[in-house]
Queue: 2 jobs
Job 1
Amino acid sequence: MFTHKRFIIDSLNFVRNSEVHHGRILPAELERLREYLLDHSGEIVYSISGVFDEKGRPTLKIMIAGMVTLCCQRCLSKLEHTLDVKTSLLIARNQDEYSYYDEDNSVDAILASPDIDALTLIEDEIILSLPISPRHQENECSINNITISTSEITGAVKKHPFISLKSLKK
């Protein structure tokens, strides 16, 4: 299913060399992300930069933009979700440094590795950015577009109490 060439980075060398990698991928190319999507349409643009932060710590700056299609949990119809992710991942040189960063809720960190799959990082960040319960705005759900007049319901209740349910199915 993957048509995009995997891009493997050595995290510390990537930062030391101030490298930048960017590209475009289709949501269908990201296997774990597909589970969250209503369909696989759209395109995702990403960029990963190796930098040293203001404290001189090795960091991967990740930017992701695009559009994916989710399922509205209120009306179960198509919900276009805009991706606009900007994040920084500190690179811990060893397990002790990683444990130290892990205690600080204000930073995100990963353990340095000579073979990090860039697309896996991108996919992780996209999944983390998705809403827990995706929903349209209050007045945008297709369920709100169902119109039944009060006279239809009142007349139906007089005939038979369950006939009003039938009108809701329309």
Job 2
Amino acid sequence: MAKGSFNIGDEVAITATVRRRVTEDRISVSIPSYGFPHSIIDKTSTVKKGQSMELVGDVTHVDGEWVTMNLGVPVTVNMDTLRLVIAYQPPMRKAPLVDKPT
């Protein structure tokens, strides 16, 4: 799949930068092209300011070059900042949807 072509349901990742530790179990991260600080739960005490971390979520909306992904809350970012992790595969039916004619 070419970079920048995402579909609804795809699992994507974005690299965020740690801004600071807000509480004992929560840190603030800066997400590229998002424009707002985002807070996530992280119980490890080894995270430092400026460290990069990868956030993974599902695509919920695609609008031109902007993609909305679910990170607990919807986050809309530029398509160029995302990386495809797993493409969405619809579930396969075991039995046909309609009955066989008799």
